Amino acid sequence: MKDKxxxxxxxxxxDIFHARKLKCTPQRLSVFKVLxxxxxYLSINSIHAKVKALLPGTGLATVYRSLDTxxxxxxxxxxxxxxxCHSYAVAPEGHRHPIVCTECNRVIEFAECPLDKISEKLxxxxxxxxxxxxxxxxxxxxxxxx
Length: 146
Hints:
The chain has helices at 10-19, 26-37, 44-54, 60-72, 115-126, 142-145, and strands spanning 42-43, 76-80, 86-90, 97-101, 107-110, 137-139. With 146 residues, the chain is of the alpha+beta class. It folds into 2 domains: 1-93, Arc Repressor Mutant, subunit A, CATH 1.10.10; 95-146, Dna Ligase, domain 1, CATH 3.30.1490.190. The protein has a 3-stranded antiparallel β-sheet. Strands 5-4-6 form a 3-stranded mixed β-sheet, with no helix packed on it. The radius of gyration is 17 Å and the shape is globular. The protein starts with 9 loop residues before the first helix and ends with a helix.
């Protein structure tokens, strides 16, 4: 996850919040910082533990709300794991989809989007302008298949 989408740092994040007339709280910044410094997707519990190390009084509900806001702003993405849990990471550059290993929960992102043509056809057939979509695939990575 080397290609972080917002290499602008904390000032760039503040600009995004202010443009949407949202408060840029220390908790929201800390959640983003934890994700930005991670090389992998993180579970809510991992994020909470790392944020608490930065801001000891931060509760789990605050981390959930911060993540929801960061997702709404397009700064963070969430992947669904087969066990029903979720993991989070800084949004990658461009349009990407995750492939999640069902054994080790490793996430590999791919940029090729097979849904573009399907979305166009569905829009034409239904009269609904499709504005967004979500595609996530599951399988075993090479390391777990060996």
